[in-house]
Amino acid sequence: MPVEPEAFALFHIVDGAVAMIVVKNLYKSFGEVKAVQGVSFEAQDGQITGLLGPNGAGKTTTLRMLYSLLPPDSGEILIDGLDPSKDAMEIKRTLGVVPDSRGLYTRLSARENIEYYGRLHGMSNPQINGRVDELIDTLDMGDFIDRRTEGFSQGQRVKVAIARAMIHRPQTVLMDEPSNGLDVMSTRALREYVRSLRSAGHSVVLSTHIMQEVAALCDRIVIIAKGEVAADGTATELLERARCDSLEDAFVKLIGSEEGLLA
Amino acid sequence: MSGLLTVFKKEVRENIRDRRALFNSLLLGPVLFPLLFVGLMWFLESAERERQAQTLELPVIGAEYAPSLIRFLEQHGAVIEPEPENPEDLVRSQEEQVVLRILPEFPEKWSEGLPAPVEVISDPSRQESNAAIMRVKRLLSAYGSQIASLRLQLRGISPQLASPIMIKDVDLSTPKSRAILAVIFLPYVLMITAFTGATHLAMDTTAGEKERKSLEPLLINPVPRWEIMTGKMITTTVFAMASLALTLVAFRIVLPYLPVGAFGMDLTLGLSTLLKILLIISPVAILAAALLTLLASFAKSYREAQSYMGLVILIPMIPSLIFMANPIKAEAWMMSVPLFSQNLLIGEIIRDEAVPLDWYAMSIASTLVIGLLLAAMAATLYNRPKLIFGSG
What we know:
Strand content of chain A: 25-35%
Largest sheet of chain A: 6 strands, mixed
Number of strands of chain B: 4
CATH topology of the domain at 5-102 and 172-255 in chain A: Rossmann fold
Structural class of chain B: mainly alpha
Oligomer: heterodimer
Structural class of chain A: alpha/beta
Shape of chain B: elongated
Shape of chain A: globular
Distance between the termini of chain B: 32 Å
CATH architecture of the domain at 5-102 and 172-255 in chain A: 3-Layer(aba) Sandwich
Number of helices of chain B: 16
Radius of gyration of chain B: 30 Å
Strand order of the largest sheet of chain B: 2-1-3-4
Radius of gyration of chain A: 18 Å
Helix content of chain B: 55-70%
CATH class of the domain at 5-102 and 172-255 in chain A: Alpha Beta
Helix content of chain A: 25-40%
Order of helices and strands of chain A: HEEEEHEHEHHHEHEHEEHH
Strand content of chain B: 5-15%
Largest sheet of chain B: 4 strands, mixed
Number of domains of chain B: 2
Strand order of the largest sheet of chain A: 6-7-8-4-9-10
């Protein structure tokens, strides 16, 4: 999808919607390993965008460049009009990130873990307390909020990781394989939460290697394989393009192999 | 700077709840080292006392050649044992510490007024037999000089003629300056404590954070990385300082219980002395925190970091070991060398010497400069993505 340079400078208009995240021609290599080779996509407010791809396709690397932890070798990123390589601090304030690493501090309670991130965002104590109460409600954390996180279940851990990422009410939310290691009930709860973010007008980008996840959640699907975008569009568009009946077949056809699909 | 403070507060709270941190920083150094010191002193002293109190059992070969010498030995507490079969083997196998052999030509030389030969058979390389050897030799030379005086008197000569020089000891050392063991031991312990007090924290806040997979999410927060790292290093420094202060207090409590007389030690640590020592050693805590954080930041896991630490802990030992082997006089230029300068200064303080003020200033300034340089390097380390993810 070509992007005009002058439009790229601030927001890019796609189908009348405002693109909050614009990624153009992103490259990143680690020595010999070419992790990302020309990834481009867009994500809008009020939409869930799924980065779908087999393990090792470059999803995590792409997200890390989005949240300014890795500098891209080349290419452009704009989030709300900001460039992560130039306005790293500003971008970190507007982004909520649930990265691949979801380590919690086991000697702190869930509440203390979340409060820590609130303080790092420069929030005041009353602000933090009010927001934590809200998050306890939406994420159903009342049972364990004041327990130390040592021995938490995966589901509880993901909830705390999401809560601390959302403490500062970010407009744009990035999640790296959020349902990894979750049981059915926790996955359901997570999907509901992500949908509620969409209803509230947030822009959500999540990466996953699980077909059902994108089918159930995403408004827009970006298929990434071997560091490149293999296809990009709504579920219906992808089915049409691949001339398939099921998304799974379409996926295999579009990335051209079954490699890495067996989750 | 609010980010720095937030990180600092959180690390303190988290580590106060960590038994490992408390044990390493606040218990290991402050309790173990003073106990070790006192225990060592008690052991040395009681072993020495025991040896002196022991009766001297002395197998003698050829006792019949020198009956009056034997009587002299017996009068002075030696228990003469019968002639052993194979004295050299007995000493070699450590069954006997020392054996005396009076040679057959003894009576002949004795009556001719020539030096009469006796052999003291022993193995001085065995530390434990030194006391016995010394006692035998002392008794022999006492007997010798007694006989010498008698012989001179018999010939009408004053025995004083045989002592042309009289040595008088004019001892200018104060009781404190004799506290030699403490002068070596205390700086040694304090240097190590500055490092052991910082080690766990330095590893836990960097390699540990990476291992727990909480480093990446932490760095996504809108706080400059140097602030995060500096907050961590300040926590580490505070723990190292607490460790040092507690160690000093522990020594203060323990010292009165030391067996003073045996080593000529009269060492008390007054409050002002303690504070002076703490002031001098504080920059070392900063240096240690920065150096250890710098190194641990490269490790992917706590365990990997630990393997580096084994080597680093040798660094604070080097100056003390050098001074033990080769005591040197403190000079101004040495004050610019971290660890050396603190070692020397603490020694001077314990000895109650007057130390020029600019020596203090030089020691503190030079150590601080190097510590802060290392800290600046450590602070920017996580600007390298490689180190954050801990993979190639």
